[in-house]
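help with this:

***
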Amino acid sequence: MLDINHTNPIGIGTYNLNLENKEKTLQALLYSVSKGQNLMSTSLLYDNGKVVDFLYHFFQKVKKDDIFLTCHLEAYIEKREDIEKQLDEYLKRMHIDYVDALQVHNSYVSKIPLLSTYEEINRLIEKGKVRFLATSNTSLKELQELQKHFTLTSFEGVYNLECKYYENIGLLDFCKQNNIQFVCYQALRRNQIAKMNYPFLVDLAKKYNKTQNQILLNWLVKEKNLKPIVKTTTLQNIDDNLSSLDFTLEPNDIHLLNCFQDERFNAIEIDWKNQGGITIDKLASQFKLQS
C-alpha cells in the first residue's frame, strides 16, 4: 500500500471528467496509471455522484492497493453516523474495501464540531475503512486546531501562480513544519493561466522549449514541493504533464515565479461559513477569461 509521500508528484484529478465518452476517459485514466500516476482525489459531489460511479470501472482494471485515493465528505454531516454512511457510499459505488484518506471538502459541510468529525474519521481508521486523516479547504486556524489533536497526512487546497492565498497566510509553512503534504488543485487554473499569456511566462516557455503549463508544474513540484492534481483525458497532455519534471529551472526564473501574484485574488475576503460570499474552493474560479 502507498503513503502519499511515495506517490507520483502529479495527481489525477476527477472533477468534471468527460463522461460523455466513458471509454476514452477510462483509457486515459489507465494510461495515466501505466505512466506511474497513482494519486487520485474524488467526490460524491462531482457530477452528482456519476464520477464516483464511473470509477467503479476504473477499479475493475486497477488494483486499489496501487492507487492512493482521497475522498471528500460533503454537505451535510448532521451527526457522527453520517460520516460512515458517506464513506460506505464511496466504498459501495466503487466496489472497494477502503479509502486512503478521508477529509471534509470544506469545514462548513459538518454541522457537528470539526473535532468530533475527525474523532469519527479516526474511528473509521481503527475499523480499517480509512488509512489516513486529511483535510481540505480549511482555514489556518482550523488546520492548527486539528493538528493539535490528530496527525494529518495531507491538506488539499488551492494554489497556483496567480492565487497564493494559502502561502500568504502561512498555511503552506505550517504544512511543511508539520510534515503535512500540501496537495494543490487548480494548479493550472484550468488552463486560464496559460491563456493570460503573461510575457515572462511566455518567455520562460520559449527559453526551456516547454509549454507554459509545463513550466508551472515543474515549479510547483520541484521548487514548492507541492503535489498538483491535474485533470486531463488527452494522452498527449498526460505525457506533457509528466515530462514537465525532466528539466531544471534556473534560480532567477524560480524567483520570478515565486514573486508573481494576481492581487485581485488577495483582495477577496473568504467566506469560511458559506454564507453567500466566495468560499475558498471557489477562489481560483474567479476572473476567468471569456472564451
